[in-house]
Design a protein that fits this description.
mainly alpha, two-stranded antiparallel sheet, 4 helices, 2 strands, globular
């Protein structure tokens, strides 16, 4: 039996980590935000982006672009978020064109990640669910 190539393993493990976060329920109120048993859209990252709704808005927009196979935002925040996704092995960079694209594992989870992120953002910032 052949061993799984390292690049396949890291993509699979990153997808498993995201899937584990997505299995958590969305908080039903702002009192539940940040609880370990609830979904946290920033739970995959080594930073916490809940200090401004702009962080959530940018992240959701980038995830939607990745889902659509587009790149509309070129601002520094969006570029850094794409780099973070690549660092976490949820996205890869092509060589020509040099653009960020989701791994197979992340692509399958994108619709749910976007939907849950929007729901948490609406609770956190009091915005209507989009």
């Amino acid at each position: 039996m052949s061993e799984e190539p390292w690049h396949v393993r890291v993509d699979r493990e990153a997808g498993e980590k995201l899937a584990a976060e997505l299995r958590k329920p969305v908080p039903s109120s702002d009192w539940e935000l940040g609880g370990e048993e609830f979904f946290d859209p920033w739970g995959m990252f080594q930073l916490y982006g809940s200090y401004s709704s702009d962080f959530d808005d940018m992240a959701i927009a980038v995830l939607e672009e990745l889902q659509a196979g587009e790149k509309k935002r070129a601002d520094l925040g969006a570029e850094m978020f794409r780099e973070m996704l690549c660092y976490l092995n949820l996205c890869d960079y092509g060589t020509s064109p040099r653009v960020c694209f989701p791994t197979q594992e992340m692509r399958a989870l994108l619709p749910e990640w976007i939907q849950k992120w929007r729901a948490v953002s609406a609770i956190r910032w009091g915005q209507p669910d989009a």
